[in-house]
Amino acid sequence: MTLYSIVVPVYNSEHTLETLYTRLCKVFDEELKLPFELLLVDDGSKDNSWNVMKSLREKDDRVKLFQMARNFGQHPALLCGFHYINGDFVITMDDDLQHPPEEIPKMIRVMNERDDVDVILARYENRKHNLIRRFGTWVSVTATTMMLNKDPDLEITSFRLMRRFIVDAIKDTTVNHPQIGNLLVANSNRIINVDVHHDARAYGHSGYSFKSLVNTLLYDITTHSAFPLIVIRNIGIVTFLFSLIMGIITLIRYCLGSITVPGWTTLILVLLASAGLTLLSIGILGEYMMHVLEESKKNPHYVIRQKDL
Questions:
Q1: What is the DSSP-derived secondary structure letter of residue 42?
Q2: Spatial contact of 124 and 99, defined as CB atoms under 8 Å apart
Q3: pTM to 2 decimals?
Q4: 8 Å CB contact between 132 and 213
Q5: Residue 277 domain flag
Q6: What angle separates helix 210-224 from helix 131-148, to the nearest 10 degrees?
Q7: Residues 211-269: tens digit of each pLDDT
Q8: Is there a domain that residue 191 lies in?
Q9: Domain count, the chain
Q10: 160-163 and 119-124: which strand pairing?
Q11: Are 93 and 120 in contact (CB under 8 A)?
Q12: What is the dihedral of CA 89, 179, 135, 291, to 10 degrees?
């Protein structure tokens, strides 16, 4: 019988884990009547999440536990779980109950009906994220579409159903800061969206600040695309052509004797613009060099402090 592996990154979710487990059991044991395993990865929680996870493990050996040595982030936590899955299909979802377990059967039905599909990504019918998160998601989707030649209508979310071979293909990635959605798009074009309900966050608030969204976006752009370098190159070409034309015009005017007053203001403005463009170019090149340096270090994506399988 088909086994489903559910991987959930956990961060400060002591109030939602018990409910999440109970609802998953009800869906798989009563509705689907299919076997499943639940892999909970504690990503450096500061609350009582680990003890709640241990209590779930004590009453159900289908629950597998991993505790990270520190907070590595959602995507490294998922990669950690991917290395220990046994299922034929893999489901990823958040720990805050915004991804309703009751929507999983819908995704499974579509996967069973579509042999040509490798990955199903949930598309939220009534997104409950705050304005900053929505804006960050929109910018990220737009940037990803440009960088990876992704279908602009495909929405990348963290609520996913994937075939096992896709997970096996991405779990050993050497990218320094892996992004699961980008890795999926880079490895398969057989990805579709399925509309699901999206619940409001039951407790606390999102860990994604505006700063973290901006940092992630900048990393994605400078890792997966040469777009900033191309823009700077094109600006340099246009600036050179413009200066060449202006130089010719100035020389002609000088020969005709029509230049009588030195252009002090123009000179300063040109120098400031040139210096600003130079510093911007150096900064962008520095970003790329930093990524090369980080990749060369080959730091581990995560460190497991303890586990219970």
A1: E
A2: no
A3: 0.73
A4: yes
A5: no
A6: 0
A7: 666 666 666 666 666 667 677 767 776 776 676 676 677 667 667 766 556 665 566 56
A8: yes
A9: 1
A10: antiparallel
A11: no
A12: 180
